[in-house]
Amino acid sequence: MNFPNATSPEAPATRDRLGRPARDLRISVTDRCNLRCAYCMPEECFGSDYAFLTRADLLTFEEIARVARAAVSLGVRKIRVTGGEPLLRKDLPVLVGMLSAIPGVEDLALTTNGLLLPRLAAPLHAAGLDRVTVSLDSLDDATLARMSGRPIAAAEVLAGIGAARAAGFKTIKVNCVVQRGENEEQVLPLASYFRGTGVTIRFIEFMDTGTRNGWRLDTVVPSSELRDAIHARYPLVPVAPAIRGEVARRYRYADGQGEVGFITSVTQPFCGDCTRLRLAPDGSVYTCLFARHGHPLKPLLRAGAGERDIADWLRGVWRIRDDRYSEERTEETAGRDKVEMHHIGG
Hints:
Order of helices and strands: EHEHEHEHHEHEHEEEEEEHHHH
Structural class: alpha/beta
Number of strands: 12
Strand content: 15-25%
Radius of gyration: 19 Å
Shape: globular
Oligomer: single chain
C-alpha cells in the first residue's frame, strides 16, 4: 500500500512534542554480537549463559519492511541497519533489498564491526545498500583486543573496510569510541591512517548507554580535546551541517585530505535536533538511545495490521515523544535503568 509523500500537503511531517520531525529509522536486526566490547556488551554481563532472543522472538524481514514502509509514510527518509552485529543475521542482503526498494528511502546505511564484510560487502552493495560505517577503536592489536573482549587484530577490521571499498561503496565511515585510560592515545594514529583515503573517521564520546558498561564522567574524553590534538598536527576547518539532525560535528583538513567528525553526545548534546526512531529486533519501538522502555509493536504486527494502522500507531508514539536525556544527564541519572545498546543499535 502506498501513502502520500510525507513532505506533501496531504501528509505533513510528523513532529514530536519538541517539534522534531521523524526523519531517521534505525533498525536493529539482532541482539547478538561476535564481540564483547566493554562499552556495549561486557563479557562479564553477556557471557555464554546470557539468554539472547530466539529466532521466534525476532521480527521477520517482511514485518521489518512493513514497519519501514509505514515509517516512510510519516516522513522517514533515512534508514540504518544495526545490531548487535547486523551481519550475524542470516540472509541480511535480502532485507537490504527489500528496504532499498521502498519508495521514499533516500539513504540506506549499515553499522558493523566489519569482521564479516569480506564475505558480505559485495552482496550488500548489490542489494542496494548505500553506505557502510565500521567500528574500529584502535590500530594497536592489544588495545583493540582488550576493548573488544575478543582476540581480534586491527588487520581483520581493515580487511572489512577494504572489502567495502572493493565492492563499490563510495561512502565509508569509521567510528571510534574514545575512553579515558583505554585508547585516547590512538586518536592521532587513527586520524593519520585514514587521512587522504576517502574514509571519514568519527570519534565518539563514551556514553552511558544501558546500565552495564561502567560509565563514569571521568572516563569521557571531551571531543574538544581530541579536536585540538588533531588540529595541532593537521589544521582543521569547521564544516557546516548538511542537514538537520546530523550528529557529528564535521571538520575538513585544511590541506584537502578529507574530513574528521566528532560525536559529542556528552559534552555538547544534540537532543534538540534528534530525528531518530528505533526499531528493536523483538519489535519494540524506542524514541531515544537512552530510553527506559520501548513501545511493543509486535502484537499489532502479528495480528495482521496493515501499513496504515502501523503508521497511525507510530505517529501516536512519535507525537508524545519528549526525550532529551543527554541534555538532562547527570551522574545520578546515568545510573538509572536504560535499554542496552546492543538491543537497539548505536
